Amino acid sequence: MADVQIGKSQVYASTLGLGTNKVGGHNLFKNLDDEVGKDVIRAALRNGITMLDTAYAYGFGQSEKLIGEVLQEDEFDRARVIIATKAAHIPGDESKMDNSPEFLKNAVEDALKRLQTEYIDIFYIHFPDDTTPKNEAVAALHELKEAGKIRAIGVSNFSLAQIKEANLAGYVDVVEDNYNLLHREAETELFPYLDKHHISFIPYFPLASGLLSGKYTATQKFDQQDPRSKKDDFTGERYQKIIATMAEIKVIAQRNDASVPQLILAWYLKNPHIAAVIPGARNVEQMLANAKATDIRISHDDYELIDDLFRF
């Protein structure tokens, strides 16, 4: 599996990582099994996936804890694993964010303990708060980088203006934000600045809550209690257009001897603006299927065709 440099840092990570919100993220997903989650991490590492993307918010530290337990096993070499984690949620009052230097320094120390490691490869400010100057927040992380406690600095869910403020001293290495073939605002809002300043971009929600997996049908209905019933992507003409487009995507996937999710992930891997992709997995089977996306070499014509199909 290919590696990619994260920004201007000395961190090199696999282009396909593992998003671990389904590993220990009991506050986000129902019916998760921590032992299954640890098996997912083990299988990822055994199959060449070196980047594990986690956060305090995934189980309020439980995801980090499970990763730390797996990396203590003799089979795995910590030096070959890229741990990316995030913080901003105030413990005990997780609806509020804090980017203050004191909070971030404490958050890194707490994450190091949960992960049972001496350093974190990529540390993100998970969400912006309303008060802290972003360059001051990043300056605190730069101090931790100089001290060897983190190796690369990231921000997540920041607007372009906030990214520019955070990067006043040129310290930001990577941005993580919502991006997929259905939600492409980053292409015009973020990519030009990130490319110019050699800041890596890593998208989350690459399969758009399953819409890009090909599992939904035109006749599917969502109960009013289902959050999807309130989202534009799952209702009305837009939903029908997405389903119709996915029918065309299935033909392209068959031509490439791939499943639909594998084809979509392969498209991101070919996108020059994207450093790495971090799909999540609830079980080992999903993780192994996602990993096969790195074996798919879609042609330039198919890449452009997929690109055009989602221009609506």
UniProtKB/TrEMBL annotation:
Q: Does the keyword Oxidoreductase apply?
A: yes
List, alphabetically, the GO terms of the cellular component aspect: cytosol
Q: Which InterPro entries match?
A: AKR, AKR_Detox_Biosynth, Aldo/ket_reductase_CS, NAD(P)_OxRdtase_dom_sf, NADP_OxRdtase_dom
> Is Oxidoreductase found in the keyword set?
yes
Q: Which residues form the NADP-dependent oxidoreductase domain?
A: 16-309
Q: Which domain of life is it from?
A: Bacteria
Q: Which GO terms describe its molecular function?
A: oxidoreductase activity
Q: Which UniProt keywords apply?
A: Oxidoreductase
**Name of the protein:** Oxidoreductase
What high-level taxonomic lineage is stated for the organism?
Bacteria, Bacillati, Bacillota, Bacilli, Lactobacillales
